[in-house]
Specification:
four-stranded antiparallel beta sheet; mainly beta; 0% helix
Length: 117
């Protein structure tokens, strides 16, 4: 079993920055892809960014140039640096983890990000 825990959310003013962290733990495993998704009230969950084992990244068009995903392989942790935040970025942000050779995706409980003046 893999446990995924997000942290770092909060309230920030428009134009501000936040850094989210996602830590995976549990029995021995190798992580394939780590990702960030978000879900705003009344909307479907959407992809924000992903990073693979080879550190290939992918971003939603809405966050390109403002958000940056990275990972620490040794710590099994991923980060999402969010800059130039907008009110439209307000959502619950979820971390996803997929393992090498397994189809299951593990999710965290989510962390709230609110962008408001």
């Amino acid at each position: 079993q893999v446990r995924v825990v997000e942290s770092g959310g909060g309230l920030v003013q428009p134009g501000g920055s936040l850094r989210l962290s996602c830590a995976a733990s549990g029995s021995s495993f190798s992580i394939n892809v780590m990702g960030w998704y978000r879900q705003a009230p009344g909307k479907q969950r959407e992809l924000v960014a992903t990073i693979t084992r080879s550190s290939t990244t992918n971003y939603a068009d809405s966050v390109k140039g403002r958000f940056f995903i990275s990972r620490d392989f040794a710590k099994k942790t991923a980060y999402l640096q969010m800059n130039s935040l907008k009110p439209d970025d307000t959502a619950v942000y979820y971390c996803s983890v997929t393992l090498v050779g397994l189809p299951t995706t593990y999710w965290g409980q989510g962390t709230q990000v609110t962008v408001s003046s």
